[in-house]
Structure to design on (404 residues):
């Protein structure tokens, strides 16, 4: 018995030591491969949040290696563990819209008129995120804007590839628009909203519904640091912020490939720009072009890149990057011109900053009214940290107040 206990203790000690070494190695890797610019407000908090994410990923990898669960599954589980309980100001209910899970937040206070409606699509790179991870954000929007908010639990990659997430968001939105009277929502005041990958989905849904005459017209779209294209991962913001948490340049391309194909086998080609033929790049250069970005956003070490061609074999695996329902920045002008009033939030220290800036220009060039709010000290994912107690950021609340 004593021998067995000794062996068990030694095994656990060895496992713990290996785990600690792995975590230390991951944190060291994080410090050597990431950069927090001096312009970020409260950089120590951002570093702590990033280290927590790194440690979660390391534990997930260990559990995957010993056959307990997948790394992705573990990270999703940890992200969705926080529960907020009842809300004294909101009725909260889980439902299904066209086989898509949704959570509805309705203000309890009586209203003299029909309320605004908000369809919300969470971020997380199409791989992570859920109704639970954005619970606090949706509650805040519902309370502060006195709106009925519908948070959509769309299917995630890599299990469900494109266009699964887009189809779920579109179907849920169509269902809501067809049943607004049941929720006391004004048909003239329905908005689609999303952050990061959710911003991509909101833009795609808004474009799809723009020409529909059988449904109420959307009042607005709210795009919070959206990812809107996959043709060029070397725009100024991708170069300047490639190692800034919480979204590295490489991870942005990785998530897009996970959503598209369920794998990232062509990651290097996508990062260097050899995944799209030159003739197609030139076709879309009027929209995806560093020259369309204001000069003040290029002063932080941007270097123009030479256009690279690609092989037919590579393009075959990623050619759907040219579909607007995946990359809304590539939609034709006739679609853009029909879009509703738009709110776009960008962050200076975010690889996706220029996607937002390019879309802002496209909308304005086509006569769409745009409200743009730029967080000069912000980073990708900051809005979701508006209520993290001692890990909250003042600019997160400032950005969220502007969204409301």
């Amino acid at each position: 018995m004593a021998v067995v206990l000794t062996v068990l203790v030694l095994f656990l000690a060895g496992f713990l030591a290996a785990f600690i070494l792995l975590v230390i190695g991951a944190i060291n890797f994080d410090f050597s491969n990431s950069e927090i610019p001096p312009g970020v407000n409260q950089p120590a908090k951002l570093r702590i949040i990033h280290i927590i994410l790194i440690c979660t990923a390391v534990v997930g990898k260990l559990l995957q290696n010993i056959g307990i669960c997948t790394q992705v599954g573990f990270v999703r589980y940890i992200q969705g563990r926080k529960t907020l309980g009842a809300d004294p100001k909101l009725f909260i209910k889980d439902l299904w819209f066209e086989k898509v899970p949704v959570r509805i937040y309705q203000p309890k206070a009586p209203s003299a008129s029909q309320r605004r409606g908000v369809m919300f699509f969470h971020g997380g790179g199409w791989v992570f995120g859920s109704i639970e991870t954005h619970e606090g954000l949706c509650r805040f929007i519902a309370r502060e804007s006195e709106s009925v908010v519908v948070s959509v639990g769309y299917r995630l990659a890599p299990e469900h590839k494109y266009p699964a997430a887009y189809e779920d968001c579109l179907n849920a939105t169509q269902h809501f628009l067809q049943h607004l009277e049941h929720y006391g929502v004004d048909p003239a005041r329905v908005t689609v909203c999303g952050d990061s990958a959710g911003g991509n989905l909101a833009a795609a849904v808004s474009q799809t519904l723009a020409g529909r005459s059988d449904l109420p017209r959307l009042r607005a779209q709210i795009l919070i640091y959206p990812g809107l294209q996959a043709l060029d991962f070397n725009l100024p913001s991708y170069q300047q912020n490639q190692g800034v948490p919480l979204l590295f340049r490489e991870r942005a391309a990785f998530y897009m490939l996970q959503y598209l194909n369920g794998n990232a086998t062509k990651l290097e080609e996508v990062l260097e720009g050899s995944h799209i033929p030159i003739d197609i790049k030139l076709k879309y250069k009027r929209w995806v072009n560093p020259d369309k970005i204001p000069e003040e956003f290029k002063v932080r070490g941007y270097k123009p890149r030479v256009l690279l061609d690609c092989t037919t074999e590579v393009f075959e695996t990623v050619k759907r990057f040219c579909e607007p329902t995946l990359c809304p920045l590539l939609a034709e002008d006739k679609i853009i011109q029909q879009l509703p009033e738009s709110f776009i939030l960008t962050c200076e220290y975010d690889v996706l900053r220029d996607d937002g800036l390019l879309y802002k220009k496209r909308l304005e060039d086509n006569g769409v009214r745009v409200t743009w709010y730029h967080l000069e000290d912000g980073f990708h994912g900051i809005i979701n940290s508006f209520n993290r107690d001692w890990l909250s950021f003042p600019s997160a609340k400032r950005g969220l107040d502007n969204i409301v």
User: Anything to note?
Assistant: The mean pLDDT is 93. The beta strands are 90-97, 100-107, 115-121, 147-152, 185-195, 220-224, 341-349, 370-379.
